[in-house]
Design brief:
Layout: H1 3-30, H2 45-70, H3 74-104, H4 113-144, H5 148-151, H6 154-182
Length: about 180
């Protein structure tokens, strides 16, 4: 295993603990008698579900990019990486739309426990998506300009690990926050 791949696994592991803490905090306040239950009804599960599909498809496209890389198809690799970036951007735009709608209903980070827990958890995830998009963009740019050999083959593996982690975390967040609110 390459050093960069191992370091990415350690990083993802440490971030998983941070996300677990945020999720447990959210769950703690969402139990009956908690302060999240009433406000959570404003979440649009269907609309967020659509944007979730875009994010989950991006895991598929980064996998295809990896397969193109293994076959030596740099044009296909770049195409699928750009597709991954577009899908991630659609997800972030969806998150921005949702935030704007919630804020218009006066649901803010400082209004109540729900706002604080919701925006912290989903915003932290959104930050991870944003960072992943930047990293994907840099790697795609280097491949496009045929400078990837200087970067090393483990860079794509590391970016893929990070991106799959971001998608896996969202599955848990969506299930706990959105599907939990719909129950």
């Amino acid at each position: 295993m390459s050093r960069s791949k191992m370091m990415m696994l350690f990083f993802v592991g440490s971030e998983a603990f941070f996300f677990l803490a945020l999720i447990f905090g959210y769950v703690y306040y969402s139990h009956p008698g908690g302060q999240i239950v009433d406000t959570a009804r404003f979440l649009d599960v269907k609309k967020t579900g659509v944007f979730t599909i875009f994010l989950l498809l991006s895991s598929f496209t980064i996998h295809i990019a990896d397969l193109k890389f293994k076959k030596g198809n740099s044009k296909g690799l770049v195409t699928w990486m750009i597709t991954t970036i577009v899908l991630g951007l659609v997800f972030l735009i969806g998150q921005g739309i949702e935030y704007a709608e919630l804020i218009s209903k006066e649901i803010t980070i400082s209004k109540d426990v729900f706002g604080s827990a919701f925006y912290t958890l989903t915003g932290f995830h959104g930050l991870h998506v944003f960072v992943g998009l930047i990293i994907l963009g840099v790697v795609a740019y280097l491949i496009w300009n045929e400078k990837y050999h200087k970067l090393g083959t483990s860079a794509l593996e590391s970016v893929s690990i990070y991106w799959h982690f971001v998608d896996a975390v969202w599955i848990v967040v969506f299930s706990v926050v959105y599907l939990g609110a719909a129950l």
